[in-house]
Amino acid sequence: MTDVHNAQIRSYNMSRIGSKNTKPELLVRKFLFSKGFRFKLHVRNLPGKPDLVLPKYKTVIFVHGCFWHGHEHCRYFVIPKTRTEWWMEKINRNRTLDMIHEGRLREEGWNVIVIYECALKKERQEETLAEIARRLLQIKMDLD
Ligand SMILES: [Zn+2]
Prior knowledge:
Bound molecules: zinc ion
Mean pLDDT: 88
Number of domains: 1
Structural class: alpha+beta
Low-confidence stretches: 10-15
Strand content: 5-15%
CATH architecture: 3-Layer(aba) Sandwich
Strand order of the largest sheet: 1-2-3-4
C-alpha cells in the first residue's frame, strides 16, 4: 500500500517538479516572441530562477503551476486527501519561497509578473497573454 502510494507521488513529482519548458511556459514564450519581446530563460543568478527575464523591460516572469505553488481559490489547487499535512507543508514552503524570491527581485528593481497555469487554459489564454503584453508596455513607458 505504502509503496503504491509513494510510487504515485514519485511519478507525479517527477512530472512536475523543476520541469522546464512546460507547455504553459512555451505558450507565453511563443506569444511574447511573436510580439517582438525578447527574453532570456531560467536565469540562474536571479532569485527563484525566473522562467523568463526581459532585461529591456526590467521584468521577470514566473509561470507557476497551480498545485505546486498553492494557487488560492483555484480549482486546480486541491490538496490530496492522503498525507494532507505533508502536502500542505510542502506547498506552504513553496509559497514562502515564492514570496521571498519576489521580494528580493523587487528590491533589486525588477518588476515581477506571476502567471498561474490556470490563466493559460484555452478559454483564458488570449486575455491573459494580452494582459502580459499590456503590462510590459506600461512598464516600458514608465522606464523611458
Ligand atoms: Zn490556478
